[in-house]
Specification:
globular
Length: 705
């Protein structure tokens, strides 16, 4: 099961083909495009109340300010379609109008838009816009809204909100050993390095939008829906994206307002959100309240397995974070119950953030498994092994491939798990209490639809085109490797072009489906072209659909996280000394970029466990943390030694490439391993994430008391 060396380009740790462009500043991002004739600059004016109505907007001073070309409010904004439809199957293709209402649904909602000859002039003039409001009380507290939370029925048009197998309640009540615990996770924000930005320009009836987006066809359809124009009249270009993490799956008002300004002025308009605007005008990860109930026999085999989740949704939306998705697939148990409840609040939209559902659901579930292991006096790795299964426990079908047990065993051997002292607070290193923790990882594997075009040029070079995106994950590189190997060409003879709706459509980047989906389309196109070269064909298209995954099987990637932490007994400070992740993710397309994805996931787990959280000001419904000075993410100083290992895993019933998604698997369970290590180090259980020093000091004092 150890990693093996690939024979061809696929799998090799190839340097990023776009790396030199990025490090030299030659890769052009959305806000950096220079329009013919010069672009103008837009600045969004956000609402300063959490809920209410606009009584009036005074723009006189703003219009007289230096360099101002245009000020837009509801009074002069062009007609647009209303927001939605809310139940559109592709929620990222909804209409997203701007400045079309007097209502303020949440803090930061755009209420005016200023365009000027420079960014500085636009920002200064925006500060001169005066808005009068009629505020009304809003609902901003998730736990207070719990009694009124609704059963969404189905989550985001797909999974059922509730699931049940067997008879959970009596099985849990009669279990000899049980855990019943409440875990809470905070609001989180994706904070991609590149803020949301757009440059829009009209040429007659054609709208061209350079924007920072994870998708291409969805914003194309959405903007067409917003302005009631044919989809073919909208071109989306997003060649380079500075991070997304789910935050750039939807398109936002920066795109809509740039298009409005460009149409009204007859000139290109650029819009970039400020960091506080990104926190309020885009999506976030919901906070959650989770109840996990585990019942086991005295041998450590689960007999009852339950997880309930309360999550936030914007009042005007229907998104439900699928918190319990992992619980439905991870361990065997004959009696099972998972439930989601959705509370609608007067906050911005919650939506996908890296590993939606699983990232926070596994924080709770895998900590509860650690608590169960302690109650059983059983090694936490052994508990997980005893409850492993080769059959999806809720769908009663086999996994296409599942090597969780191998990941746990390999990780335990590599990490030195046998040196772990089971009794908490037993190992000291000066003022530091030292402990080890473990957690399982799972992330469902899916395929979407995509088409790619492969063309052999007159000089023998190969050009591959598809409307895929590269959000910093390495799409350009792995698609180059797939095309080169399939066509038996050196990688430097292949050019991949992405991020343009003039290319064949794809599902874009997100949900860990991007590489497998777009890669399978490139594979199909290149195979078709190669087979037809003898007949003189120089160009071919190939496609993939979700049907390429055998639905007789369940599909997921698996892994095991191990962490060692030190906790300063005097200050409550936690230092992650080392982490190991062992993953079974099918065929690895590029060893270097895959490792980078997993390192990022482990790092994100540290942030989720220790520092990352946002708070809502109950007076205004605003997020308190609005920049990277106050919203803390893990940085180099927070990260100790990290090791990543991939197991060789064949997946004959998976996608055409035999690969699985790696973009999110690395975060799933990582934070729980850190939290479990903290307990082993100190004896303290922190169930309200993250484990900040104040919480740890209070818990340690209680243990001493």
């Amino acid at each position: 099961m150890a990693e093996s060396k690939p024979a061809g380009p696929i799998g090799r740790p190839l340097d990023r083909v776009d790396g030199r462009l990025k490090v030299t500043g030659s890769a052009t991002y959305a806000y950096e495009y220079a329009a013919h004739g010069g672009a103008t600059y837009g600045f969004i004016v956000p609402a300063a109340i959490g809920k209410g109505r606009i009584l009036g907007v005074d723009v006189r001073d703003a219009r007289r300010a230096p360099g101002v070309l245009l000020v837009v409010t509801k009074d002069n904004a062009p007609p647009q379609s209303p927001w939605g439809p809310v139940d559109l199957p592709d929620r990222f293709a909804r209409a997203a109008p701007a400045l079309n209402t007097d209502e303020v649904p949440y803090f930061g909602f755009p209420v005016a838009f200023v365009v000027a000859d420079t960014f500085e002039h636009a920002a200064a003039a925006a500060a001169l816009v005066r808005v009068r409001y009629a505020p009304v009380p809003g609902d901003y507290d998730l736990q207070a809204a719990a009694p009124h939370a609704e059963n969404p029925g189905r989550m985001n048009g797909a999974l059922p909100a509730d699931s049940a197998v067997g008879d959970f309640e009596p099985a849990f009540a009669s279990a000899p050993v049980k855990i019943d615990a409440i875990y809470t996770t905070p609001y989180q924000n994706q904070v991609p390095m590149e803020p949301h930005a757009t440059m829009a320009a009209w040429e007659g009836r054609m709208l061209t939008v350079h924007t920072a987006a994870q998708l291409t066809t969805s914003p194309q359809e959405g903007l067409a829906r917003t302005f009631n124009i044919p989809k073919e009249n909208v071109r989306i270009i997003t060649r380079y994206v500075g991070g997304g993490f789910g935050n750039k799956l939807p398109y936002y008002v920066d795109a809509t307002l740039a298009a409005i300004g460009a149409r009204m002025l007859g000139r290109p308009v650029k819009v970039a959100m400020t960091r506080p605007q990104v926190f309020h005008s885009t999506t976030h990860r919901t906070a959650s309240v989770q109840r996990v109930r585990l019942g086991a026999d005295r041998a450590g085999r689960l007999t009852a397995y339950g997880q309930d989740a309360l999550v936030q949704c914007a009042r005007f939306d229907i998104y439900t974070e699928p918190v319990c998705g992992a619980a439905r697939m991870l361990y065997a148990a004959p009696n099972r119950l998972t439930r989601h409840r959705r509370a609608k609040l007067d906050l911005p939209r919650s939506d996908s953030m890296r590993a939606p559902g699983d990232a926070i659901g596994l924080l709770a579930l895998e900590c509860a498994m650690d608590e169960l292991a302690e109650a059983l006096a059983l090694d936490p790795v052994e508990l997980r092994l005893r409850n492993d299964t080769q059959t999806d426990p809720e769908h009663n079908r086999p996994f296409a491939s599942r090597h969780l047990a191998e990941a746990l065993r390999e990780g335990a051997a590599r990490f030195g798990w046998n040196k772990r002292v089971a009794k908490p607070a037993s190992v000291r290193d000066g003022p530091w209490l030292v402990g080890l923790g473990v957690a399982s990882a799972i992330r469902a594997d899916v395929l979407q639809s995509a088409t790619a075009r492969a063309r052999l040029e007159s000089d023998g070079r190969l050009t591959v085109e598809l409307a895929m995106t590269d959000i910093g994950t390495g799409s350009y590189t792995i698609l180059t490797q797939i095309a080169a190997e399939t066509m038996e060409l050196p990688v430097d003879r292949v050019t991949v072009r992405l991020g343009d709706t003039r290319f064949p459509p794809t599902a874009g980047s997100g949900g860990s489906f991007g590489a497998a989906t777009s890669g399978a389309a490139v594979l199909a196109a290149c195979r078709k072209l190669k087979a037809a070269l003898a007949s003189g064909m120089k160009e071919a298209e190939g496609s993939v659909t979700p049907a390429s995954l055998d639905d007789a099987y369940s599909h997921a990637g698996f892994g095991a996280h191990f962490a060692e932490v030190g906790v300063d007994r005097n200050t409550g400070e936690v230092r992650v000394r080392r982490m190991l992740g062992v993953f079974a993710a099918g065929r690895i397309l590029n060893a270097k970029t895959a490792r980078s994805q997993m390192i990022g996931g482990l790092t994100w787990g540290i942030g989720s466990a220790l520092i990352e959280e946002n708070h809502v000001d109950p007076r205004y419904g605003s997020f308190v943390n609005q920049d990277l000075a106050s919203y803390h993410v893990a940085v180099n100083a927070d990260v100790g030694a990290m090791e990543v290992m991939f197991l060789d895993e064949a997946d004959p019933h998976g996608g055409p490439l035999g690969s699985k998604g790696v973009g999110e698997l690395g975060i799933c369970g990582a934070g729980a391993a850190v939290m479990n290590a903290i307990h082993n180090a100190t004896g303290a259980r922190i169930r309200d994430f993250p484990a900040t020093p104040d919480k740890l000091l209070a818990a340690l004092e209680a243990l001493d008391g």
